[in-house]
What we know:
single chain, alpha+beta, Phosphatase 2c, domain 1, 5-stranded antiparallel sheet, PPM-type_phosphatase-like_dom, Protein phosphatase 2C
Amino acid sequence: MQATCATLATPGRVNEDYHAVGPDWAFVLDGATAPSDVDSGCEHDVPWLVHRLGAELARRLAVSDRPLADLLAEAVESTCAAHADTCDLRNPSSPSSTVSILRAGEEIEYLVLADSPIVFDHGAIVDDRVERLPSYTQQAVRDLRNQPGGFWVASTKPEAAYEALQGTLRDVGRAALLSDGASRYADMYALGTWPDLLDLLEKAGPAELIAQVRKAEAAAPKPPREKHHDDATAVFLSF
Length: 239
């Protein structure tokens, strides 16, 4: 497995994405930017969460071939233990993150939790539950986070790992793991299809993909319910 990667923070902000690549695995985390007027019950910021969760997940992927959901659940549990004594983990607004994981073997295993898709030549694995909520007020999103009928993220409930989209594929030649700031190329700005996105990554690299997204953001009006700019991460894999 060969990988090329790029990440770029929202202008003027700290990058809340995190990614890692091993010999036969890769993942992307996209931390959820907390509204400034929401009490998260946590003394830590989102970058702390994604770095801690990422370290726990990478350590497990490096030594275990157990199911991806098991490894993610354990990583969430360990991350919770690291701040259970200082923070209110019962608060549903506690810092959270999307998770996308790919592991290569006889088959390609994938796990997608929340809106950071994994793209293959046949299409994209997209967890769109956050796009189908009945309301997007702060209270509604808070009440529906990590709840049946709502949406699921990596935060303070290890069981959320088992709500991820999971599966295996054969005969995969290439793939991309994207935070939603990078997937805007296809799903928000329609600069190309998912196969076009893979072609661009293969020929020009992840940095060029992100550059084209930034250019589109600069030329477009602010989208409803979305940030004008977002942290963008792309990991391109060939097998």
